[in-house]
Amino acid sequence: MSEIWNTEKLHAHYAQSLRVDDLLYDSKTEHQRLKVFTNGTFGRILTLDDVVQTTEGDNFIYHEMLTHVPLLAHGAAKRVLIIGGGDGGIAREVLKHESVEHVTMVEIDAGVVDFSKEYLPMLSQGAFEDPRLNLVINDGAVFMKENTETFDVIIVDSTDPIGPGEVLFTDTFYGHAARALSEHGIIVTQNGVPFMQGDELTNTMRAFQSLFADATCYLATIPTYAGGPMALGWGSHSSQSRNVNLETIERRFIAAGLNPDYYTPEVHKAAFALPGYVKKLMP
Ligand code: SAM
């Protein structure tokens, strides 16, 4: 068995190693080092600058929760914007909603899209070929600054706030995103694992509280993002979407004909229940 390990050193005092059973790709794109390898527990794994982005085995949790929670809370989303998301997993889940008419996906790195299509086709499952998807290769922060359209749901599926992803955690970016949301629109963001990256959540929540009438986070536990549940940021100009009751979510879920492996209407509602240590990170 291989003795090569991918060691992720995202945190100052904690590292995570995954055995590289078979290295399928290792190269530098214009923006970051991209690796695809197989691992007996998680299947195919995509890393950017050695940090795990997504795995064949557990990506369903992250992608379903970052997509179905805002889409079913909104209930009639037609226009969706994805920032980042180069592996196609979020696009895959968004396009399962027949109510969605148009998806704009803004990814900085064409290399991630190309290699994901070739080495991780199970992630996008044909999403890049869907005529409702408009793929834009650009920095999400630049796009947002110049954007004049409005969206019902904005999903920020970014890397961590280091390297090219850093600009997607700034007040300026969030301010432009807030302007682009429709009346009951929702923005959701990947906000790291609060036990390990508490500042990341605090900073985003501080910005969201100044921009949105409804600002909070919800949680999902994803095995490869170690250290407990991950926080997914939530912002909206109205609290209507978050306060939708369980019966309504159930009705919308059945009507959408989804068959997810993690998301359920009960999990949707429960995900907003925050433990004390997470609440204390809210400014
Ligand atoms: N869920 C993963 C995680 O947190 O580990 C991240 C998923 S990965 C699909 C994130 C994507 O964001 C990458 O494809 C990366 O190229 C893209 N990205 C990073 N910075 C960006 C930026 N400024 N604008 C648009 N896309 C960006």
From TrEMBL:
Where, in this chain's numbering, is spermidine bound?
63, 87, 157-160
The record's section on PROSITE patterns has: PABS_1, PABS_2
Record-level GO BP terms:
spermidine biosynthetic process
What EC designation does it have? Answer: 2.5.1.16
Enzyme class (EC, first level): transferase
PABS domain boundaries:
3-237
Give a Pfam family name.
Spermine_synth
Catalytic residues (UniProt)? 157
Q: Return the InterPro entries for the record.
A: PABS, PABS_CS, SAM-dependent_MTases_sf, Spermi_synthase, Spermidine_synt_N, Spermidine_synt_N_sf
GO MF term (any one): spermidine synthase activity
Q: In which pathway does it act?
A: Amine and polyamine biosynthesis; spermidine biosynthesis; spermidine from putrescine: step 1/1
Q: Which NCBIfam families match?
A: PRK00811.1 (NF002010), speE (TIGR00417)
Under the subunit heading, UniProt states: Homodimer or homotetramer.
The protein's job, in short, is: Catalyzes the irreversible transfer of a propylamine group from the amino donor S-adenosylmethioninamine (decarboxy-AdoMet) to putrescine (1,4-diaminobutane) to yield spermidine.
Name the chain's protein. Answer: Polyamine aminopropyltransferase
What species was this sequence derived from? Epibacterium ulvae
Q: Which gene encodes it?
A: speE
